[in-house]
Write a structure and sequence with these properties.
binds pyridoxal-5'-phosphate; alpha/beta; 3-stranded antiparallel β-sheet; about 40% helix
């Protein structure tokens, strides 16, 4: 009667959702201030003033039917031109509006890209720990998601494991740096090694392997660390970007896909992106917010807030005896759980109302994720509880 797979996806709660709901229930019992909810990656710094100003200005300046009307499917041409100009200034690229396709955030950008590329028996490879939605987005196209085990020493790439998983069925490789889960940023050395291997495999298999860069956290990188712009390293790169984190606009659903001129057969790839958008009922990205981001393209929210929180939590956990790779970006820590079973560990943490997410769901058992896009004061008050939790393990 119905598509069983869709029913399963729509009714089976994710671990994060279950933890979040537990937190709501506990908050009603013991008070909001006594819950240390590290489960959700929802930005908690406000959008910069320019966003509010742009909304007012656009509503005042433009005809309502123009502001709220359909745009062409790839997005308003003037918006795309100004975003391309901003990218060129910041990253030394040579894009124009025709290289961009506006989307409803990164989720739409990656889903459209997967659909545009996917053919029967294709495999998409990603690296643990990974954003679990990749699995349902990739599988919805009929392709298979292949996960490379994590290199837990620094959360760069385990190239031996990766090379073993590349096959003639590999259609694309998905990277996410700064990384949602580990907080790591792929170094230029990692990117060079990755792209050299992909070029070698393209030659060996005689077909392109696309590199999909899912980068909603691009601007959240610490200590001035460089986040390489991947179209400059590999021709067959497609960039999926979002303003959900950099401008704190997750609910407004706005982002874009970049298809560079250098990609193999630009016209056919861009055409397939447009076709995939069409069948996924994309129509066009939110019209008002296309214009808003064009006016705020070079701005960000106060992202230094996350860096401060990240360092506070990292130092606190290290002092409590945890092992953890130092965060380089995004707003997540990915420490080692204090017992092998990360589910059991996160369950035990609940005793202190510390809400943590087991790494198994992200392809990395034995670890947990703590999202620190929360009040600094909550982190400060959580640290003695992490100490008590560690003490239970005699640490
Ligand atoms: N990709 C990653 C790695 C994410 O962490 C997220 C959201 O948290 C997304 C994609 C989707 O972001 P958006 O809100 O732009 O759809």
């Amino acid at each position: 009667m119905i598509a069983e797979k869709m029913y399963e996806l729509g009714t089976k709660k994710s671990t994060i959702r279950t933890i979040f709901e537990f937190g709501r229930k506990r908050a009603a019992e013991v008070g909001e201030e006594n819950i240390y909810d590290f489960s959700l990656g929802n930005p908690n710094v406000p959008s910069p003033e320019c966003v509010k100003q742009a909304v007012f200005d656009i509503l005042n300046e433009m005809e309502p039917c123009a502001v709220h009307g359909y745009t062409v499917a790839p997005g308003d041409p003037a918006v795309r031109e100004s975003l391309a100009a901003s990218l060129n200034t910041r990253f030394g690229t040579k894009f124009s509006g025709k290289n961009l396709f506006m989307t409803a955030g990164a989720a739409a950008a990656i889903t459209i890209t997967f659909k545009a590329l996917s053919e029967a028996e294709d495999e998409f490879i990603t690296f643990a720990p990974f954003f679990p939605e990749y699995r349902c987005f990739v599988e919805s196209t009929g392709a298979k998601l292949i996960v490379v085990p994590a290199r837990t020493v620094d959360f760069q790439i385990d190239f031996a494991a990766f090379a073993d998983l590349l096959t003639p069925h590999t259609k694309a490789v998905i990277v996410n740096s700064p990384n949602n889960r580990s907080g790591s940023v792929y170094s230029e050395a990692t990117i060079r090694k990755l792209t050299a291997l992909l070029e070698e495999k393209e030659r060996e298999y005689g077909h392109p392997i696309f590199l999909i860069s899912d980068e909603p956290y691009r601007e959240i990188a610490y200590d001035g660390i460089d986040v390489p712009y991947l179209t400059k390293y590999y021709n067959n790169t497609i960039v999926c970007y979002s303003y959900s984190k950099s401008l704190s606009l997750p609910g407004e659903r706005i982002g874009y896909i970049v298809v560079p001129d250098e990609i193999i057969d630009f016209g056919r790839v861009y055409g397939a992106i447009a076709g995939a958008g069409r069948v996924l009922t994309h129509v066009n990205a939110p019209s008002l917010f296309q214009r808003v981001i064009a006016r705020c393209a070079d701005e960000t929210s106060d992202l230094a807030f996350y860096e401060k929180n990240g360092k506070l939590l990292y130092n606190g956990l290290i002092a409590a005896g945890f092992t953890c790779v130092k965060p380089q970006g995004a707003f997540y820590l990915f420490p080692k759980a204090l017992e092998e079973d990360d589910y059991a560990f996160c369950e035990r943490a609940k005793k202190y109302d510390l809400l943590l997410v087991p790494g198994t769901d992200f392809g990395c058992p034995g670890y947990f994720r703590a999202a620190y896009c929360i009040k600094t004061e909550t982190i400060e008050r959580s640290l003695p509880l992490f100490k008590k939790l560690a003490a239970e393990y005699n640490i």
